[in-house]
Amino acid sequence: MSGLDRVRLQRCLPYLGRDRAPCCSTLLLLIPVALSLRHSALLVGQAISGVLRGNTPRWLTGLAVPEAMRLLVFLLLGAVFVSGSLSRGFQSYK
After folding, report:
1. From CA 18, how far away is CA 75, in angstroms rounded?
2. pLDDT 10s digit of each residue in the chain, 94 long?
3. Tally of CA atoms within 13 A in the half-sphere of 91 that contains its CB
4. What residue segments make up the domains of the chain, in order of their start?
5. d(CA 38, CA 45)
6. How far apart are the two ends of the chain, measured CA to CA in Å?
7. What are phi and psi of 5, to 5 degrees?
């Protein structure tokens, strides 16, 4: 961390006192949201490579293409639901 960043952080920390709980909960919710968004992009990539018969991971090799696509779609819907419910739902609650 550079010296200027440290000075800015020290100036902002006193203002965090009264809003500590919402800030900490927002920071904690960023982790699952970021992970679900990351995995949704990976799932779309796996679906494309599955259609094109590219390299597929071991957990998809034993499945037929329609079964693998169905599994990827359900996993993608789950990842989108998690990211949407945590990010949008929590923001509208506040």
Report:
1. 39
2. 577 888 887 888 787 777 777 777 777 878 888 888 888 887 887 777 766 766 677 777 777 878 888 888 888 888 888 887 777 666 555 5
3. 8
4. 19-93
5. 11
6. 31
7. -65, -40
